[in-house]
Please model this.
Amino acid sequence: MSLKRHPADDSIGYLRQGAELVRKMDDGLFTRSAGGTFRGGVGSQFRHCIDFYECLLHGLENDDAVDYAARSRDKRLETERAAAADRLEQIADRLAAIDVSALDRPLKVRSEKPVEGVPEWCGSTLHRELQFLMSHTVHHYALIVSLLERLGYELEPEQAGFGIAPSTLAHWNEADQLAG
Model:
């Protein structure tokens, strides 16, 4: 007997992991810029991830049109840790409520500003957008790890997998088992 996984399980796990990390750091660390090529701080990376998930959820509620270019960019989520952590948890709860039978649900998606000669909207599915958002989140969590390291913050041992793709973690685990 195999246990069925919800297609958003990885994203849900990452969102909850992010909320936990946000709650553990202090306000200064959450809002401080690391300088250099990083214009914002850890908070702005979390806000960016939140924006993308909210665009998907908004699209599911509004004519199946997911407009990633219409992000809210709520500054409060960059500066108020509790607000960001709560929102990450709320999004995880909303993703968990998605009906698994709706994975093939067709969506219209717009990523960024239109490019001349290229259609503004393209077709996708709920399943594909969930895959995209998980990958997007992992990417930004890796940036968060880099920012935290630049700011002198070390992740706790139980957070060692933060910002690492599930497939990479599985590969490392398999390699460790073969080596051991």
Remarks:
- The two ends are 29 Å apart (CA to CA).
- Residues 126-150 form the longest helix (25 residues).
